[in-house]
Amino acid sequence: MNREEIKQIIPHREPMILLDSMELQQDGTGRATYRVPDHPFYCEGHFPGNPIVPGVILCEIMAQSCCQLFPAIFKDHLVMYRGLDGVKFRGTVKPGDVCDITCRELERKHDTVFLCETTLSVKGKLCAQGRVTLAAIPK
Predict the structure, then answer these.
(1) Which residues contact 25 (CB under 8 A, 6 or more apart)?
(2) Of the listed 12, 39, 46, 77, which one is catalytic?
(3) 2: DSSP letter
């Protein structure tokens, strides 16, 4: 899926849609990519002269990628964070980097709560990983 197709699934819009492509693999694993803009608003003060993508933005990128695992739920629900567990930052992500994200569903509770495992890498180097819990809230 390209960005316009992604917008048919998730409600995020510029400047907070943080995915360029998504693809669901045959094994149920999701893959996504995001090229960090050369001058993203979230790096303006983080840090002057040495811009680094904030960890909270990396978590948002990973969470948005998880949404491809259950697109049908978005028709009648808004999917929101319920929790983050075991998040670790292993490397820095800078403007211009292309993030490769993988995700897979670990557990589903009550058909509205989803626990996913996800990683974010740049050029094959692991930069962030963790578990994301998302909850589908009726619109």
Answers:
(1) 31
(2) 46
(3) B
As a whole number, mean pLDDT of residues 95-116 equals: 95
- List 5's β-bridge partners, or say none: none
Dmax (CA) for the chain in angstroms is 47
Interatomic CA distance for residues 130 and 36, integer angstroms? 20
Active site residue 39: no
Give the DSSP letter of residue 36: P
User: Are residues 118 and 129 in contact, defined by beta-carbon separation less than 8 angstroms?
Assistant: yes
For the segment 27-53, the average pLDDT, to the nearest whole number, is: 96
**Per-residue model confidence as pLDDT tens digits over 43-74:** 999 999 999 999 999 999 999 999 999 888 88
Q: Which amino acid is at 100?
A: D
pLDDT computed for residue 37 by the predictor: 98
How far is residue 17's CA from residue 107's CA, in Å, rounded to a whole number? 25
pTM of the model: 0.96
Taken as a whole, the chain contains a residue count of: 139
